[in-house]
Amino acid sequence: MASTMLSLVSAALPLQENHKGKMNLGSSDCSSFLRKEKRNPFMKTKSFGRINMAIAVNTSRFEGVTMAPPDPILGVSEAFRADNSEMKLNLGVGAYRTEELQPYVLNVVKKAENLMLERGENKEYLPIEGLAAFNKVTAELLFGAGNPVIEQQRVATVQGLSGTGSLRLAAALIERYFPGAKVLISSPTWGNHKNIFNDARVPWSEYRYYDPKTVGLDFDGMISDIKAAPEGSFVLLHGCAHNPTGIDPTPEQWEKIADVIQEKNHIPFFDVAYQGFASGSLDADASSVRLFAARGMELLVAQSYSKNLGLYAERIGAINVVCSSADAAARVKSQLKRIARPMYSNPPIHGARIVANVVGDPALFNEWKEEMELMAGRIKNVRQKLFDSLSAKDKCGKDWSFILKQIGMFSFTGLSKVQSENMTNKWHVYMTKDGRISLAGLSLAKCEYLADAIIDSFHCVS
Amino acid sequence: MDPNHTISASATSGSDFGGSVFDHVVQAPEDPILGVTVAYNKDPSPVKLNLGVGAYRTEEGKPLVLNVVRRAEQLLVNDRSRVKEYLPIVGLAEFNKLSAKLMFGADSPAIQVKRVTTVQCLSGTGSLRVGAEFLARHHHQRTIYIPQPTWGNHGKIFTLAGLSVKTYRYYDPATRGLNFQGLLEDLSLAPSGAIVLLHACAHNPTGVDPTLQQWEQIRQLIRLKGLLPFFDSAYQGFASGSLDADAQSVRMFVADGGECLAAQSYAKNMGLYGERVGALSIVCKTADVASRVESQVKLVIRPMFSNPPIHGASIVAIILKNRDMYNEWTVELKAMADRIISMRQQLFDALRARGTPGDWNHILKQIGMFTFTGLNTAQVAFMTKEYHVYMTSDGRISMAGLSSKTVPHLADAIHAAVTRAI
């Protein structure tokens, strides 16, 4: 410590102009303070020299902090904004756009917000676990209102900060109560998953998922890797519309996945960010989760309303833990609260109220379902048009049908990192380096341009 | 569980046979502060009084949404161009700029030279947590000194963030004031680089603040010892009624060119409790450092909640940037602060009128939302049981939860607790 201070003092240190005077004043004040301190028994005179050096130290405590790289996903939008080209296309982050490539606030959301404003509700703290009305409807939406897990009160539901926040609460629970247990994540998976588990200090490893040869699911690899993992691991599964690949297991494959998970006493951990958005049907998109719950398995499910209700910036989601008893669920809920309190105390009300109002009102709920079908429908149309454009333009006869087989907001194009960079550098198409494009950011009008870009990148860049 | 059924030792992923992977998860106790409201809600008594959590109540005992907040919300909801796209990881840029100006002064040189990075976080708690996580990763000294006593959630926030928590003397029960010598002694023994948590104003739970002269001495000592100050500013404008006066302590530490952190909350001063609006500012030596620090703070935020909620921050931004609305806010803020000051006077007078033994001057001297009554846990339990008065067991009462109508009941309860034969 002393040698560090010596070297800091001897370095050339710029003094800020307006502080020159103050530094001198400070020194003299410190000396007089020291004199005062000499009267006090706790202050030793021999420390006088060290203290003078401390005043002269003028470098930052954070001098050694290096510049972090931009977030690989959110950083794409930043780069897009900086691009002046007229042709630019943002297929980075998964935020829904209309055909006119404008952001979309759902009509039901506007209606709900107007209702809330009219009612003039207060802004008191929510309980740590969040808005009760929201927690109730979110569990019902996920499992189905009459589902035994709900009737038997076996689900611990805690409102979280969208998908990320809900995953983080679960990760913290795992770290605390299942120390050493691993989370198995798909290869590839959403880029932020590993960050969440790293920061929560939960070890993770990957299971095979994407097969580049078929541009489909490496099912045997997946089963094999899940089987090989230590008993009692947590298996992170995408409930529907796998991000980034868009490749989902079939119902039969889901059954087999559940089999191997039960066999190994693993704990399924679902990330459900696209319920209703994948197929257009809320129930269909929840079928994987419901399949596992119906087997009496204990499981975790993180939910997000960012995409399906377009509430991205409101940060509304939930963590659900299905337990084998109501008592266990109550205890788990209490411990989730203990994790949330030192993180943010209690969650934000606005998004929660919107969801509670929309899902809790039959008329708004139906209207929501219609809007969701429109959004999912637009994406399906865009998939078709992109496929048609690629098939028509590609002289090499590559099979682009995987685009039609994939589901949800994203398509995993199979483009490499270098090829993806070409997409950006030459064609001003912004996407993530893993070859993922967000179809939600694509309009029918731009499909042909995108097809040209993909064909060029795929065939001419290696 | 069926006693005749063999439960396997390994974790099962749940079955119909009663075993759960969560069997070892015990019921957590209620949060000591928020749990007071839980207990209060369960009480059927018509005279019950909630003086637990620090949430402002009107004279009628009702929660308050400021008029200016309602107006801002109306503007937001009516604005058809508004969208709900993800905010950047650091939050709403306008909100961040305005928050920094509010905290450090509109003409702050530190802001002008760009050596302050401000990121939107989840109210005070979230700002403290993100700041602490950043420090645990990037600051060479991972010890934080917190005052004794302090807000009940502080210790947990810092511990979970990876910091080691120590305390410095703060409250003197004998004088019901500041133990200034103890504070100086303890901080002077802190290792160089240690982080020091300071309540910017309206210390929670004691309501005891250093004088400006004492703040200056604290500043000198902190700079002398190379300690890193971390301010918790949850009551700016709420303590004295003046936004600038309540920011003096923080501004002193910025004016000397040094570094510090500041966690800001809009929960109380804008009544935005449930919206979770706050900001973390890190004041660095130079703009270059600030820029690098910000990039690393983003790495803390992304795996925690990705980006912050838009609604509350938008409300704050509208109010702060609009001259009329800002002025209206300061008026409403002063009215809240004044009502609390009048409650202090009324409670003091009521205890005097009852001849309640003891010196109750501290009720008038303490500042902010809370009074540290000096009542012990037995007395507090008595008041809850016999008088249905709910407060935290450390004797802290939220003056914001009192009204002219309920002061007599509270005074009766305190009187009974202090004079009872036990």
From TrEMBL, chain A:
InterPro entries found in the cross-reference section: Aminotransferase_I/II_large, Asp_trans, NHTrfase_class1_PyrdxlP-BS, PyrdxlP-dep_Trfase, PyrdxlP-dep_Trfase_major, PyrdxlP-dep_Trfase_small
Claim: Transferase is one of the keywords in the record: yes
Cofactor(s) needed for function: pyridoxal 5'-phosphate
Gene3D superfamilies cross-referenced by the UniProt entry: Aspartate Aminotransferase, domain 1 (3.90.1150.10), Type I PLP-dependent aspartate aminotransferase-like (Major domain) (3.40.640.10)
Catalytic reaction annotation: L-aspartate + 2-oxoglutarate = oxaloacetate + L-glutamate
Classification via SUPFAM superfamilies: PLP-dependent transferases (SSF53383)
Family (UniProt): Belongs to the class-I pyridoxal-phosphate-dependent aminotransferase family.
Note: In eukaryotes there are cytoplasmic, mitochondrial and chloroplastic isozymes.
UniProt protein name: Aspartate aminotransferase
Automatic annotation (TrEMBL), chain B:
A UniProt-annotated Pfam family: Aminotran_1_2
Secreted keyword on record: no
Gene3D superfamilies per the UniProt record, alphabetical: Aspartate Aminotransferase, domain 1, Type I PLP-dependent aspartate aminotransferase-like (Major domain)
Xref: InterPro entries: Aminotransferase_I/II_large (IPR004839), Asp_trans (IPR000796), NHTrfase_class1_PyrdxlP-BS (IPR004838), PyrdxlP-dep_Trfase (IPR015424), PyrdxlP-dep_Trfase_major (IPR015421), PyrdxlP-dep_Trfase_small (IPR015422)
A single Gene Ontology CC term: mitochondrion
Aminotransferase class I/classII large domain residues: 48-414
Keywords: Aminotransferase, Pyridoxal phosphate, Transferase
Assembly behavior: Homodimer.
UniProt record similarity statement: Belongs to the class-I pyridoxal-phosphate-dependent aminotransferase family.
Protein name: Aspartate aminotransferase
Organism of this sequence: Vitis vinifera (Grape)
